[in-house]
Amino acid sequence: TYNPQMLLAGDVGGTKTLIGLFAPDQARPRLIGSRTYRTIDYPNLRALTQQFLRDTATVSSDIEAASFGVAGPVDGMRARLTNVPWIVDVEALGREMAIPRAHLLNDLEALAWSVPFLDAGELELLHAGEADPRGNMGLIAAGTGLGIALIANIDGRLVPRASEGGHADFAPRNDAESRLAIALAKEFGRVDVERVVSGPGLAHIHRLLYPHQCATLTPLPAADDLPAAISRSALEAGCADCRRTLELFVSAYGAAAGNLALTVLATGGLFLGGGIAPQNLDALRWPTFMQSFLDKSPMTALVSRMPVKVIMNPGAGLLGAATHAHAVMTED
After folding, report:
1. Which SS3 state, helix, strand or coil, does residue 10 take?
2. Residue of 119, 158, 127, 124 lying closest to 306 (CA atoms)
C-alpha cells in the first residue's frame, strides 16, 4: 500500500547487512518487511539499498527518512567500514536516491536508539536493581569487537551517544588477568578492553592462559569459529579448561560492564547487546559476572541499584536505526 511516510533502516555489518522498511508509529516504528544481504556482495551501500527496494517493490519517493547503523567510526555523513572496503557517504546516497533525510550512525549508537523501546519479552534480566526513571543508561556489546554507547537522560528525554570506550585500557584485577595482559602486551603493544572482552578475546584467553585441545576443539576450529566452540565445550561438554577460559572471559565482561555503569552513572539500567551475550546466557548467570560487575568498592551500593539486562532481539539494531529515522522525521 502507498504510504508517503515510510522509514528505511539499515544495520550494516562487516559480514551481513540487515535492511528494513518501517511505518512510523508513536510507540515504536512498525516493521513492514526486512531482508538480509551479504555486505561484500555489493560495491557500496547505495547498490545494496537499491537491491532492497527492487526486492520489496518499493519506490524511494515513498521514503521520508533513512538511518543506517554502520560497524565503524562515523564522521558526520561519512563512515569507513571496519571490515569491508567501503566508504559510506550517506549524503550522496540520499541525493542520488531522492530520500529527503538520510543519516549515518555508529552501529552501537543505532542499537542504543532501540533500548528505551524494547519490551520485557525482548530482554533477559541478570540483576533486578531499582531503575531510576531519571537516570542514564549504558550499553555494552561484545561480539567481533567491543562496542559501547551511552544513553543520556536529559530532562526525561533519552539521548543515545556513540563511544569508543571499548578501546580504553584493559585493567587486570588478579594474577590470571595480569599474566594475560603481559602476554597480550608482548604481542600487540597496548592492550585495550576489546583484546579481552570480544570473540577474538575469548580465543586469546584460550591460547595464552589455558591452551589445550579437548574433544570439542579437535581438530582446532578456524579462528572465526573458535570462540563459539569454546563456549559450547564449556557449557555442554563439561571441559574444565574451556570452563576456566569462559569464566575468565565472563568475569572480565562483568568488570567492563560495571566500569561503564560507573562512568555513565547508569542508574536507568545497563544493557548487554551484541552476539555473545544472548548465546551465553547460562554463563552470564554464573556468579562471576555479577560479582565482577558489583565489585566496585566504595561504589558497590550504587552499582547494586543498577538493573542489568541482556538484549535478546537480534533485530534491535535495525529497530534502533528506524527509531532514529522516526525521531529525525518528527523533529523537522
Report:
1. strand
2. 127
- Spatial separation of the C-alpha atoms in residues 175 and 188, rounded to whole Å: 20
Residues 106-155 have pLDDT tens digits of: 999 999 999 999 999 999 999 999 999 999 999 999 998 999 999 999 99
Nearest to 34 by CA among 10, 13, 15, 50: 10
Degrees to nearest 5, angle at CA 326 with 121 and 19: 70
Fold (CATH) for 6-115+315-331: Nucleotidyltransferase; domain 5 (3.30.420)
Residue 261 Cα to chain centre, angstroms: 16
Element (H, E) at 311: strand 308-311
> Is the pTM of the predicted complex or chain greater than 0.85?
yes
Task: Identify the DSSP state of 192.
Answer: B
Name the H helices within the chain: 45-55, 90-96, 107-114, 175-188, 199-208, 226-232, 240-264, 276-279, 281-284, 287-294, 300-304, 316-331
CATH 3.30.420.40, the chain: domain bounds: 6-115+315-331
* DSSP-assigned letters across all residues of 63-89: EEEEEEEESS-EETTEEE-SSSS-EEE
Q: What's domain 166-311's architecture?
A: 3-Layer(aba) Sandwich (3.40)
